[in-house]
Amino acid sequence: MDSSLFFDPSWLKRQPNVPLNFVWPKECLEDSLEELQAPVLDLDEFLRGDNEATLHVAKLIRKSCLSHGFFQVINHGVDPALIGEAYDQMDAFFKLPIHRKLNILKTRGSLWGYSGAHADRFASKLPWKETLSFPFHGNSLEPVLTNYFHSTLGEDFEQAGVVFQKYCEAMKGLGMKLVELLAISLGVDRLHYKDLFEEGCSIMRCNYYPSCQQPNLVLGTGPHCDPTSVTILHQDEVGGLDVFADKKWQKVKPHPNALVVNIGDTFTALSNGRYKSCLHRAVVNQYKERRSLAFFLCPKEDKVLRAPEAIVVKDGTKQYPDFTWSNLLEFTQKYYRADEDTLQNFTKWLLSSKP
């Protein structure tokens, strides 16, 4: 059988049974029966510079991040029409015939390109999804994404590059504001983390989860914490995002005007372990496809990452060794499949590999 068929949702949907390499263990498939009661934060007055509103929002963020590392934001300054255009461009890509998508196939060790079920990296517990990932350098004078789409997919995807360039610029701007709020919530100078992220290369990922005839056997994305710092996600109205909180899986109901924000492992380290990296997963639907847009804010690869001295002094101990984002990236790309223990295992790996 042509291995490329395994990337093809139309082929997968025609199978009477889910192929074995897509089946997940029962302990990962436990149902989420409740809806997560996470705050939906209105950023309008914070973005206008209101100090009282800023402190109020920071207080709510602190509470969420000490518990499960997850919250949602509205009045975030990102144009809903731009989000809609990004979905249109994403839909156009995922509707391409498989041979066109394979022209931009993500190769082993690379972060960028098309992936069908991450079959280039893993042989079992494959996620029931397709992804398209690309880099965003916010400090470049070049229209990086316009050039990327044109060079990889041709002239008919030039507009996709224009849209995603604008979308990523908006997400990077919001991400920098969220990092300010996180600093305030931790009681350090609001610009403390700015230098780490300002020139970083962030990751944009489009996710497409086809419907599945046996959704109780598969996962769109397995349980994991993001190794990155801050994730800003828009999910469509179908739903399927679950967060692990209070020792159980809980559903995140789609909110049409909200962006989902979660803390990743890198920011857990930058908070000296105070803020929880959000353990989450994506389930799939028997009848409907689901899509989401994920922007991962990343620090500059060579910046040394360590928690603020004031926090370490207050806590009495430094929880993690100094590291760079390129260290953690190497670990997750070459040696480890991201899960809830990534940061813990990365720390052991880093300490054992240092001379």
From TrEMBL:
It catalyses: gibberellin A12 + 2 2-oxoglutarate + 3 O2 + H(+) = gibberellin A9 + 2 succinate + 3 CO2 + 2 H2O. GO terms for molecular function: gibberellin 20-oxidase activity; metal ion binding. Keywords: Iron, Metal-binding, Oxidoreductase. Pathway: Hormone biosynthesis; Plant hormone biosynthesis; gibberellin biosynthesis. Residues 197-299 form the Fe2OG dioxygenase domain. It holds the Pfam family 2OG-FeII_Oxy. PANTHER family: 2-OXOGLUTARATE (2OG) AND FE(II)-DEPENDENT OXYGENASE SUPERFAMILY PROTEIN-RELATED (PTHR47990). Belongs to the iron/ascorbate-dependent oxidoreductase family. GA20OX subfamily. This is Fe2OG dioxygenase domain-containing protein. It comes from Lupinus angustifolius (Narrow-leaved blue lupine).
